[in-house]
Design goal:
It is built from six helices and 14 strands. By secondary structure, the protein is of the alpha/beta class. The protein has a single domain, classed as Alpha/Beta hydrolase fold, catalytic domain (Rossmann fold, 3-Layer(aba) Sandwich). The strands form four sheets. An eight-stranded mixed sheet has the order 2-3-5-4-8-9-12-13, sandwiched between helices. A two-stranded antiparallel ribbon has the order 1-14. The protein has a two-stranded antiparallel ribbon with strand order 6-7. Helix 1 packs across helix 6.
Length: about 240
């Protein structure tokens, strides 16, 4: 639960259909941004939001440890301590405008080496809406694929990503509720550039510090490999309590 130093800024995103979404941008104190994560949270109807713990800990740690900017936001209709984004949950389709607004914000701010980081429902948004956007690739935590279909958005999204050649890393918990490593390797055959990484002992929600640390290490390996693996110790005066 430690929070490492960063520049943290409350932000608002404006969608093409006129909604205001609330979020936060965490930047390295030293001003050097080696990669940018645009995070897409789990299903809001089941408790997902911008503060879902892996995404929150990415924002607490990665600006300091790896010179990575972390953009988090609530998709339409989603509430967190930061506030409530306008609109209503749309099941994944309308949220494409939310993804585009987040990427446009990162582009406008000049944030380099942009990557989508989706978790569960957020992976569906990344796969469905991200391939044509101005990003380098995507990292997926616990994608709920089923027989080649991204559950809410259809199979064409994998083919669209395949056509771009952009790299995709999929982190698959050994004990996931929806998709486990052996099945995931079959599901991602339609996306030949995907790296499918099974994580022993992990579950869909990545509960437990060893699994959070493994997830963050793999994320950094994908987007800023010069900073991997992450250090496990920092000076005591760099740590504040959440």
């Amino acid at each position: 639960m430690s929070v490492l130093p960063a520049i943290r800024e409350n932000i608002e995103l404006r969608t093409e259909d006129g909604l205001t979404l609330v979020g936060e941008l965490a930047l390295p104190l030293n001003g050097q941004v080696d990669a940018t994560l645009i995070t897409l949270h789990p299903l809001p109807t089941h408790g997902g939001f911008m503060d879902s713990h892996v995404l929150r800990k990415a924002a607490w740690r990665l600006p300091y440890l790896a010179n990575i900017a972390v953009l988090r936001f609530n998709t339409r209709g989603t509430h967190s301590p930061r506030g409530t984004s306008e609109g209503e949950f749309g099941g994944g389709g309308p949220e494409g405008a939310d993804v585009r607004a987040a990427v446009d914000f990162a582009v406008t701010r000049g944030l380099p080496n942009r990557w989508l980081l989706g978790w569960s429902f957020g992976t569906e948004l990344a796969l469905a809406h991200g391939s044509a956007l101005d990003v380098e690739g995507a990292v997926l935590l616990s994608p709920p694929l089923n027989h080649g279909v991204v559950r809410r958005v259809g199979t064409g999204s994998l083919e669209a990503w395949a056509a771009t050649g952009k790299p995709v890393t999929a982190l698959i918990p050994e004990l996931d509720d929806y998709l486990r490593p052996d099945q995931a390797r079959e599901e991602f055959r339609a996306l030949p550039q995907a790296r499918v990484i099974g994580v022993d002992g992990a579950k869909h929600l990545w509960v437990g510090e060893p699994y959070v640390r493994r997830a963050l290490d793999e994320i950094v390996t994908a987007v800023a490999p010069q900073h991997a693996p992450l250090p496990t110790h920092v000076p005591a005066d760099a740590v504040s309590d959440s």
